[in-house]
Write a sequence for this structure.
């Protein structure tokens, strides 16, 4: 038994999926793969350029505060290799399992987000990120397209966030699906 | 009962009927009706009984300031008391009921209060019900509450959903009348982002009561929609807050017969506006004369609104009382519609009058009628037969919002009104709210104000309308009219009449704020929107001073009542707060765990098995299995913090009271974190994974608090240190594997030598697991057994826990929960926040020697040695056992010396934690007892006040299991 | 109900994202007399007017900030990072 391969179980494996609320496709909610999410820590003011290659996708590097970033998406190297290359300027804390990402897209995605966060989404550019509260939950919010966003939330709260997004999205019609 | 609906006109959809009921009576109206207009159309003028005297009342207004027509609307969980019939849109099968009457609105016993009214004047309860004091709560208050009051709230669950949202805009326009529309249009044409909110069901404000302006209104609304302005009708902006955030409540589905479960019934908006224009209009002032509350009497603007918007004539013969030109305009409009104006009574200087109705110069003496108006006696003049009165006592700008952040209303002699400062940071006032009159003037002012507001944020805008002259001159508030001593109502809702105010002044309560408390004038749901100005005029006269000197009471949010549902949003029931799930939640659920809420977490509390009849049986089994073989417990909820940086060791050395600078790599250490006042803040183990990398665990309860504390120390106290902190609580599934068989079980899945020599007590390092992942393994023990804590990336948690359970099956490993964990730690004398209660220092727990005497500085060092904190008689940690093993001990019980009475003076401490020890076969406790460390063996009494039990007991060492730590080091 | 605090790192955010600790007080030197520590821990001004406080942007960048504000008018004069201007 212990010799069999250990497999990871996604935090949203049992989350509700399907269409909810009014007809129409105002918002699509998608659980994203739990593939790479590292937190990089440096002294405030440090240029994060060396981190860029380790992430991938539309918003690979998300600033969450002075001297802190999330590296998202599978870029080059392993964590150990990155750590070795980046020390001592940057320290890396693996959060691949610690935070869960979901995407939110569609014409009403911004209206849905406004129900939880006070961030002015009109001022959040594509590729930009903000650490904020969505209701009671801390999230890292990133804009990945004109009508597309990603939210990263602590794993323990992933299901609560998922259910809340569906509830608040019902008036637009919301489709929820696993990755 | 006759219909008062005019054959044509109005903004109604006459092709559709809306059925509704009032006090059980079936009635109908049309889409476009409010409940008030539909009742008037059905000839139902009697709508309520007044608060104190139970006088028959009808509507006074057609808007949100309505003081009288408060009703209970809806059924069952949707029952809503004190709804203003003037604001409630009619919907199919709406059910409305009058309030504050018994047995019926028509036959109301409480009206006898009117006969007792000489006892019910201002301040009556302060004077009348003084003695005896005990009667207040038991007799007087219940009777008064039953006799005087508003509607009753339902105790049923509200079936609807509420939510909150944010909006951001360059310009928020409050009020959708002429000034507001012009402001929004001006800003939108300039490309600004605009939100336009209005409390009415339709945008247009006063323009809706003026059919001549409807084509222009339609044009403006169409252009606003094309320009992408966010139009929010049915939305009351109720407060202006710091940072130029406005609170508003949108009644999303209140007007629908069957609200959709897919949308909220109400939505609370927080609107962050760079600039705002307040275009909230003005309230027409009622006149204060005898009988001015008889149903059939309302303001002239309300009359115009019902006439033009819903095509309802408030009466067959209307007398119009007017101080300025407003009544003349109304009279002409009514005559043009073929309605009879009984008389036009002018109290001031009106324009020339060419209509049919007689023009009378005079003041109202007394209105006559009971449940319906019959006539109006002109003071020293004729009696006019009339079943309706429209009165216009001038206008008061609606400036509440502009005063929510501290600005005071200022009396304007020119405008004969209180005005708010017209230019404040973030807010300008336009139109009637600034004292202007006439649609053209308001359009021009709204446009100019919007352009000025945008200029403040660097946007250029061309006013959509040019300046235009006003159509009336402002009128001074009239105060009390007529010589009669009969009741002249000032505040309808609170039944405050002119005499109450003169009495208040005579008794020394003439200050606006004092008079409000003494008479209740300006209280309750309408907060004196109509009456305050007349009250000020009456108080001014009584004091022989000016209205300006009397002033107004302070305006505070909320402008109109806001439901608790809207303020709570989605935070109710299951969604009151989020639920935090451990990565081993599914694993525990599969094993049938019972869960307990710990903060936001759900923790597995115990794991019942078939045949076990109570939780104690399961917990006892789990504890004994751990002591005998092994168990696995989910400890993922412990706070986990990664600390990096070249100064990380120095940082921890300053954070903990014990030393951490020399902690070797690969080792864990138990640490005590103090507060600056010397008391213990939190405890936990911290491991050194590399020279500049530590892994800290905190208690579940203080995980967030410790993180915040570390950040404060790193950023605000010692920013010179190179230290970087990341929370890793959710990254790791962490499990304790405890018991004499723990090593052999764990060795089956860990690919590293776990022998005592290779992995001794307090070893801590990364280890590979069979199955191809890395884990962090710590040889630490909360249970007192040979034990490990294994952390694996959270997603692998369930697979690893399953693997360990399978590996330990031959030894009979069991899953154990938070309850068993608590028993195990109490048996071992380990503390939690039950003991670390904010009043203990390390020495109190027998950990005085841990405190480093050599470190020059650490948090808590400098106040730790104060006299009171080193007193040998301080409460100290001890164990407690009952002399009779069959007697249970209960947490919170107090410790007394043998034979001492249960008094505060004799109190020697209390039991902080108790458990049934299956190992010992009786109840055990940890306690903080005065001088306890020197009293092991002493017999005491444990006093359980809740059960009134005095239990003979003995103080002992707090360590009930393995005092030499042989199991720990095995 | 609502109000916005301008975080120097995140921009204007609602007060719900922040946690207030209290007055900004320099920590006494390690060898300061106990009276000084006593005052540091227990004694606070309660001014009507300008006040400097430590606020934590707990729901945002997690930086400790110095918020200078007026307790009577609620005006926020400045918000800076607590580490700024320190060694
Ligand atoms: Zn911030």
């Amino acid at each position: 038994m212990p010799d069999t391969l250990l497999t990871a179980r996604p935090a949203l494996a049992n989350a509700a999926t399907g269409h909810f609320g009014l007809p129409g496709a105002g918002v699509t909610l998608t659980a994203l793969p739990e593939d790479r999410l590292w937190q990089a820590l440096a002294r405030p003011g440090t240029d994060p350029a060396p981190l860029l290659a380790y992430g991938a996708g539309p918003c690979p590097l998300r600033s969450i505060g002075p001297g802190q970033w999330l590296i998202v998406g599978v870029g080059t190297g392993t964590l150990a290799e990155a750590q070795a290359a980046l020390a001592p300027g940057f320290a890396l804390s693996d959060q691949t399992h610690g935070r869960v990402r979901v995407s939110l897209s569609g014409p009403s995605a911004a209206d849905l987000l406004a129900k939880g966060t006070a961030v002015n989404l009109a001022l959040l550019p594509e590729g930009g990120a903000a650490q904020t509260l969505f209701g009671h939950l801390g999230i890292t919010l990133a804009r990945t397209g004109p009508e597309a966003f990603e939210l990263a939330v602590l794993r323990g709260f992933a299901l609560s966030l998922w259910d809340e997004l569906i509830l608040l999205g019902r008036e637009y019609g919301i489709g929820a699906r696993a990755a | 009962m006759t219909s008062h609906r005019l054959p044509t006109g109005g903004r109604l959809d006459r092709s559709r009927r809306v059925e509704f009921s009032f006090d059980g009576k079936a009635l109908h109206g049309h889409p476009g009706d409010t409940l008030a207009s539909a009742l008037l159309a059905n000839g139902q003028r009697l709508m309520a009984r007044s608060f104190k005297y139970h006088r028959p009342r009808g509507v006074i207004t057609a808007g949100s300031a309505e003081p009288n027509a408060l009703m209970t609307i809806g059924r069952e969980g949707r029952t809503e008391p004190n709804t203003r019939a003037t604001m409630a849109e009619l919907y199919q099968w709406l059910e409305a009921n009058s309030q504050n009457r018994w047995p019926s609105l028509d036959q109301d016993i409480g009206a006898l209060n009117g006969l007792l009214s000489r006892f019910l004047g201002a301040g009556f309860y302060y004077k009348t019900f003084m003695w005896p004091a005990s009667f207040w709560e038991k007799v007087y208050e219940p009777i008064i509450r039953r006799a005087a009051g508003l509607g009753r709230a339902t105790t049923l669950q509200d079936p609807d959903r509420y939510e909150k949202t944010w909006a951001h805009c360059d310009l928020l326009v409050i009020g959708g009348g002429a000034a507001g529309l012009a402001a929004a249009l001006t800003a939108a044409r300039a490309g600004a982002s605009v939100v336009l909110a209005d409390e009415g069901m339709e945008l247009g404000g006063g323009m809706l009561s003026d059919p001549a302006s409807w084509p222009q209104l339609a044009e403006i609304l169409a252009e606003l929609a094309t320009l992408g302005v966010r139009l929010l009708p049915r939305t009351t902006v109720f407060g202006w807050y710091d940072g130029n955030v406005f609170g508003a409540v949108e009644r999303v589905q209140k007007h629908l017969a069957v609200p959709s479960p897919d949308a909220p019934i109400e939505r609370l908006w927080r609107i962050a506006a760079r600039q705002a224009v307040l275009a909230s209009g003005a309230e027409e002032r009622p006149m204060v004369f005898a009988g001015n509350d008889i149903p059939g009497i309302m303001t002239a603007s309300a009359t115009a609104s019902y006439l033009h918007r819903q095509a309802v004539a408030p009466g067959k013969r209307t007398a119009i009382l007017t101080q300025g030109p407003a009544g003349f305009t109304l009279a002409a409009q009514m005559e043009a519609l073929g309605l009879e104006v009984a008389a036009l009574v002018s109290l001031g200087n009106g324009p020339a009058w060419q209509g049919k109705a007689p023009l009378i110069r005079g003041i109202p003496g007394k209105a006559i009628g009971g449940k319906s108006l019959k006539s109006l006696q002109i003071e020293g003049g004729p009696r006019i037969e009339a079943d309706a009165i429209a009165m216009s006592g001038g206008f008061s700008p609606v400036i509440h919002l502009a005063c929510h952040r501290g600005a005071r209303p200022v009396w304007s002699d020119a405008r004969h009104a209180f005005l708010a400062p017209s230019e404040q940071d973030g807010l300008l006032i336009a139109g009637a709210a600034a004292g202007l009159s006439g649609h053209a003037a308001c359009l021009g002012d709204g446009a100019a104000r919007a352009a000025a507001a945008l200029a403040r944020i660097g946007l250029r805008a061309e006013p959509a309308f040019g300046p235009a002259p006003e159509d009336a001159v402002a009128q001074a508030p009239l105060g009390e009219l007529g010589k009669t001593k009969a009741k002249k109502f000032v505040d309808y809702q609170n039944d405050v009449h002119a005499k109450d105010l003169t009495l208040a002044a005579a008794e020394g309560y003439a200050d606006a704020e004092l008079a409000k408390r003494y008479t209740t004038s300006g209280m309750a749901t309408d907060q004196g929107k109509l009456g305050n100005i007349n009250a000020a005029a009456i108080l001014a006269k009584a004091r022989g001073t000016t209205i300006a000197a009397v002033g107004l009471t302070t305006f505070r949010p909320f402008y109109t009542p806001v439901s608790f549902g809207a303020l709570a949003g989605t935070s109710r029931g299951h969604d009151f707060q989020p639920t935090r799930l451990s990565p081993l939640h599914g694993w525990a659920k599969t094993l049938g765990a019972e869960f307990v809420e710990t903060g936001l977490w759900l923790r597995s509390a115990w794991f019942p098995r078939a045949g076990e009849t109570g939780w104690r049986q399961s917990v006892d089994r789990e504890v004994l299995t751990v002591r005998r073989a092994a168990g696995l417990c989910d400890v993922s909820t412990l706070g986990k913090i990664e600390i990096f940086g070249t100064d990380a060791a120095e940082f921890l050395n300053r954070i903990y009271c014990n030393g951490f600078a020399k902690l070797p790599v690969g080792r864990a250490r138990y640490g005590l974190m103090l507060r600056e006042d010397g008391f213990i803040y939190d405890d936990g183990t911290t491991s050194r994974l590399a020279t500049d990398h530590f892994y800290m665990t905190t208690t579940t309860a203080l995980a967030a608090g410790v993180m915040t504390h570390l950040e404060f120390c790193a950023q605000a106290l010692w920013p010179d240190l190179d230290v970087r902190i990341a929370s890793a609580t959710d990254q790791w599934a962490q499990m304790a594997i405890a018991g004499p068989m723990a090593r052999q079980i764990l060795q089956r899945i860990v690919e590293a030598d776990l022998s005592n020599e290779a992995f001794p007590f307090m070893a801590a390092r990364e280890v590979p697991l069979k199955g191809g992942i890395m884990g962090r393994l710590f040889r630490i023990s909360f249970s007192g057994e040979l034990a490990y804590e294994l952390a694996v990336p959270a997603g692998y948690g369930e697979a690893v826990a399953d693997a360990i359970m399978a590996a330990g099956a031959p030894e009979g490993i069991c899953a154990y929960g938070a309850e068993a964990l608590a028993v195990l730690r109490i048996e071992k004398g380990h503390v939690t926040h039950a003991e670390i209660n904010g009043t203990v220092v390390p020495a109190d727990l027998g950990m005085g020697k841990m405190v480093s005497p050599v470190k020059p500085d650490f948090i808590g060092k400098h106040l730790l040695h104060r006299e009171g904190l080193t007193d040998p008689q301080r409460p100290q940690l001890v164990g407690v056992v009952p002399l009779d093993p069959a007697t249970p001990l209960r947490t919170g019980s107090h410790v007394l010396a043998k034979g001492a009475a249960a008094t505060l003076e004799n109190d020697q401490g209390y039991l902080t934690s108790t458990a049934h020890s299956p190992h010992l076969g009786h109840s055990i406790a940890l306690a903080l007892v005065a001088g306890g460390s020197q009293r092991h063996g002493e017999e005491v009494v444990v006093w359980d006040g809740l059960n009134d039990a005095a239990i003979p007991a003995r103080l002992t060492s707090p360590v009930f299991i393995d005092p030499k730590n042989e199991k720990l080091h095995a | 109900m609502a109000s916005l605090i301008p975080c120097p790192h995140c921009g204007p955010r609602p007060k719900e994202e922040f946690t207030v600790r209290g007055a900004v007080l320099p920590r006494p030197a390690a060898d300061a007399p106990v009276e000084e520590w006593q005052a540091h821990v227990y004694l606070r001004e309660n001014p009507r007017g300008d006040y400097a406080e430590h606020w934590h942007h707990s729901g945002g960048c997690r930086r400790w900030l110095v918020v200078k504000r007026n307790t009577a008018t609620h005006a926020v004069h400045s918000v800076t990072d607590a580490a700024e201007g320190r060694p």
Notes: The mean pLDDT of chain C is 93. Chain C is about 10% helix and 40% strand.
